[in-house]
Amino acid sequence: MAAAAAVAATANGSPATAAEAAEEIGGPTNPMVTPLLTDLYQFTMAYAYWRAGKHLDRAVFDLYFRKNPFGGEFTVFAGLEECIRLIANFKFKEADISFLRSVMPTCEDGFFDYLREVDCSDVEVYAIPEGSVVFPKVPLMRIEGPVAAVQLLETPFVNLVNYASLVTTNAARHRFVAGKSKVLLEFGLRRAQGPDGGISASKYCYIGGFDATSNVAAGKLFGIPLRGTHSHAFVSSYMSLDEIQDRALKSPDGLRTCEDFVSLVQTWLRKLQLAGSLSGIFGETNQSELAAFTSYALAFPNNFLALVDTYDVMRSGIPNFCAVALALNSLGYRASGIRLDSGDLAYLSIVAREFFHAVEKEFGAPDFGKMTITASNDLNEETIDALNKQRHEVDAYGIGTYLVTCYAQAALGCVFKLVEINNQPRIKLSEDVAKVSIPCKKRCFRLYGREGYPLVDMMTGENEPPPKAGERILCRHPFNESKRAYVVPQRVEELLKCYWPGSSQKPREELPSLKKIRVRCLQHLEQMRPDHMRRLNPTPYKVSVSSKLYDFIHFLWLNEAPVGELQ
Ligand SMILES: Nc1ncnc2c1ncn2[C@@H]1O[C@H](COP(=O)(O)OP(=O)(O)OP(=O)(O)O)[C@@H](O)[C@H]1O
Ligand SMILES: O=P(O)(O)OC[C@H]1O[C@H](OP(=O)(O)OP(=O)(O)O)[C@H](O)[C@@H]1O
Ligand SMILES: O=C(O)c1cccnc1
Ligand SMILES: [Mg+2]
Q: What per-residue confidence (pLDDT) applies to 16?
């Protein structure tokens, strides 16, 4: 393998050393992502390759998945940046070498001398841009390089792409069902699969279309907007209004001071109790809840939001919230809204909205009816869909467990398969046709139709003439002879771009910011034909191969498959 001094071309084509590229790209977000974060068999294979003098053979691997998750017909690709961060910094430390020596005691010393020199300066990575909508069988990444080194990347690459793409897709599906106008908050950290699951969920749910996270570390690491309310513990920690010591509140312009905000709140609560339009809805409210709300408003007068379901939403939480909000209003502040965390969220959001409208009318409180209603509590695609079917008044959803654990499907099932070695195409056969790999170093294209929608993805051999806009192209199902179609694309887009040129001198694609990846994801989702995206019985998107590649796959298949014998 080439030494670290080998060049990696930069985005503008000017060569830079691998060390400079590593500096520019930075290291993996999670320090646990090191060259040792792989399966033991990658090292045993590396040793066997090395002993056989085969370790520098030039291999091509494809990373892809076989089936879209969550019963859908689309997936969002994510995790690419973390893969590039790993290979940009891929170097064994002396302590790693010692550890490997201890677990592989029968291996010759020369192997460890070789590992000491291994880096990714001779590895090339081509990938579909992160945040793209992608489909089964099409390589998300093509990794070329010395077989032993690329083999070591299998496990971490699949690890870095699998959950990232799964949870991004899950987030995109939640966005789709909630609709564009709703605010989506990711609240999953406490329920995520460990710290990395939590941080990754926050990052990738943002890419998939969430607006903000409650995860402070993710806010710091990635610049994701942070949002939050308060918990039941805060509400139930108060016993009475007497606990509130500092009762003064200045108006937003600082010119007036209300010396006893608690009394002002009590006055507003009495007004609410006496209001004709609200009579019969509530009587005496819970005073410890009122104390909690008042105290929170004193701490955050510009951003007052209350969790209203600790005792009784309509008989206590909502009237108490309104009393505090009206008191803030009279000083010139605007309350933000409420959170509902139990009960029938459709019904409660509707009656809460009616109450807010009635208050607006009764007291001439401008925009009081537009108060934000946030809902949470074991929400998922199905419950949001059910709420939509019932009618509701929820403006924002806080979603945790089902979102970040990808409760509906545990894994995407990404694989990393050898497709060529030393320019010789390789195939992996299986009884299950869906598991037969598509051989050869390939180019991948997305063909767009007249209406601007993607029509079909097509893979070709590396040296075939690429499909061109306006030309009639035969697209074939890779394994089903009768499934084929002529396509005249309006536009053709090459999918795999060079993100790590190794020693090839090709220009390196820049890694976009998280915000740009999110924009790409939302644009891609938007441009899909709606029948591919619907929740119930979506239409499969077509993934095809060129006629030439089809013929070659089947030639190789027959060549490699032993002929059975019947007696
Ligand atoms: N209108 C609705 N239609 C469909 N599902 C709903 C609706 N309102 C709430 N849900 C969902 O129903 C489930 C209700 O949860 P659960 O049975 O645990 O009751 P709860 O309201 O949490 O009660 P509590 O917190 O008082 O124990 C949650 O998953 C919630 O998202
Ligand atoms: O429901 P999720 O989608 O996971 O969203 C996050 C949940 O976490 C919080 O409470 P927690 O669940 O810790 O306590 P609770 O069940 O008593 O509300 C919050 O009130 C939500 O209910
Ligand atoms: O800020 C919130 O309301 C929140 C945060 C995490 C989990 N549940 C709720
Ligand atoms: Mg809960």
A: 61
Q: Is the CB of 337 under 6 A from ligand 3?
A: no
Q: What is the pLDDT of residue 317?
A: 98
Closest ligand to Cα 346: 1
- For 210-263, how does the pLDDT look when each residue is reduced to its tens digit (9 = 90+)? 999 999 999 999 999 999 999 999 999 999 999 999 999 999 999 999 999 999
Of 473, 451, 458, the C-alpha closest to 529 is 451
Q: Is the CB of 400 under 6 A from ligand 3?
A: yes
Give the residue from 242, 267, 244 showing the smallest Cα distance to 331: 267
What was the pLDDT predicted at 283? Answer: 93
Q: How, if at all, do strands 497-500 and 124-127 pair?
A: antiparallel
236 touches ligand 2 (CB under 6 Å) = no
Distance of alpha carbon 309 from alpha carbon 235, whole angstroms: 10
Return d(Cα 541, Cα 534) in angstroms, integer: 12
**232 ligand 3 Cβ < 6 A:** no
3-state secondary structure at position 281: coil
Tell whether domain 3-170+409-560 is in CATH 1.25.40.10: no
Q: Is the CB of 343 under 6 A from ligand 1?
A: yes
pLDDT 10s digits, 64-91: 999 999 999 999 999 999 999 999 999 9
Say what the pTM is: 0.96
Euclidean distance between CA atoms 547 and 552, whole angstroms: 9
Mention every residue, 6+ apart, whose C-beta is less than 8 A from residue 159. Answer: 37
Domain boundaries along the sequence of the chain:
3-170+409-560, 238-335+343-371
**Cα-atom radius of gyration of the chain, to the nearest Å?**
29
Q: Whose CA is nearest to atom 5 of ligand 3?
A: 187
3-state secondary structure 345-381: HHHHHHHHHHHHHHHHHHHCCCCHHHCEEEEECCCCH
Asked whether 377 lines ligand 2 (CB < 6 A), one says yes
**pLDDT over 60 at 517, yes or no:** yes
Burial of 291 (0-12, 13-18, 19+ CB in 10 A): buried
Measured CA distances, 214 to 30, 229, 338, 353 (Å): 19, 9, 16, 25
How far is ligand 1, taken at its centre, from the CA of residue 272, in Å? 29
pLDDT grade for 22, boundaries at 50, 70 and 90:
confident
For residue range 449-467, what is the model confidence (pLDDT) as tens digits? 999 999 999 999 999 999 9
